[in-house]
Amino acid sequence: MSRKENLSRSEIRDSAFKLIFEQLLRDDDIAELYEIAEEVDEIHVDNEVKKMVGGTIEHCEELDDIISNYSKTRKISRISKLNHAILRLALYECIYDENVPDNAAISEAVKLASIYSYKEDASFVNGVLGAFSRDRNNGEAKDA
Question: What is the largest CA-CA distance in the chain?
Answer without folding.
Answer: 45
